UniProtKB/TrEMBL annotation:
PANTHER family cross-referenced by the UniProt entry: PERIPLASMIC IMMUNOGENIC PROTEIN, SLR1258 PROTEIN
Source organism of this protein record: Flavobacterium johnsoniae
Alphabetical list of InterPro entries matching this protein: 26kDa_periplasmic_antigen, SIMPL/DUF541
Keywords: Signal
Identification of the protein by name: DUF541 domain-containing protein
One example of a Gene Ontology biological process annotation: DNA damage response
The keyword Signal is assigned to this record: yes
Signal peptide range: 1-18
Length: 229
């Protein structure tokens, strides 16, 4: 009898607790914020690659070319803090058909150029001094963190505006945000090369512009859950 009374008491308490739980009305929306800015610096990753049959000679030739490259960068008034050696490698490559071993030496330098007007001159000089591989060119903003913050704020405003649009026809209001998820990614545009200058431009002595820099589009994406009042 006591067990039956205890069981009924627990069931009654469980049912009463369940009735007290109320589902909180809410709305889930996505928001996006975009900030477009002109880049004010460019990061260049350039490599000297040398191949040959003798490891010592290959390494020596590669070192001499990279020495010339670094001297040119310094001569171009790029601050010491804005360029550095990123990678150095010397690898054997065995040719199974010829049964011979050759060697491949590479050295990569990473340069941050803060004066974009010197881009063409720098790139031309790098190639002339021995750079034979451009691994990456990315245009960036020195105020990236500031622009990212602005994009995030715009994304939250966009999410709230969407939520208000949805509930406006229901006679409800958007309350506090209860969850926010950041789904943002940063994108750096690659250079877009223009056509080579024509013979007429050469004859006229016109300057050669080899790329269109464009703009950096910094995007923030969020998912927000709002309580409905």
């Amino acid at each position: 009898m006591k067990k039956l009374v205890l069981f009924l008491t627990i069931m009654f308490m469980t049912m009463s607790y369940g009735q007290e739980i109320k589902q909180v009305p809410q709305i889930n929306v996505n928001g996006e914020g975009k900030v477009k800015v002109a880049p004010d610096q460019v990061c260049i990753s350039a490599t000297v690659e040398t191949k040959g049959n003798n490891a010592k000679d290959v390494k020596k030739q590669n070192d001499e070319k990279m020495d010339a490259v670094l001297k040119f960068i310094k001569k171009s008034n790029v601050p010491t803090a804005d360029f550095k050696t990123k990678q150095v490698a010397l690898n054997p490559q065995y040719d199974y058909d010829k049964k011979k071993t050759s060697y491949n030496a590479t050295q990569t330098v990473e340069i941050v150029l803060r004066d974009l007007s010197k881009y063409d001159e720098l790139m031309e000089g790098l190639v002339q001094q021995g750079i034979n591989r451009i691994d990456n060119v990315s245009f960036e903003s020195s105020k990236l963190l500031q622009h990212q913050s602005e994009a995030r704020k715009l994304a939250i405003k966009d999410a709230k505006a969407k939520a208000e649009d949805y509930v406006s026809v229901l006679g409800q209001k958007v309350g506090k945000a209860i969850t926010i998820s950041d789904n943002s990614q940063v994108y750096h545009p690659r250079p877009v090369y223009a056509a080579m200058k024509t013979e007429m431009m050469d004859a006229a002595g016109a300057s050669n512009e080899t790329l269109a820099i464009g703009e950096i589009e910094i995007t923030a994406n969020v998912s927000v859950s709002f309580i409905l009042d």
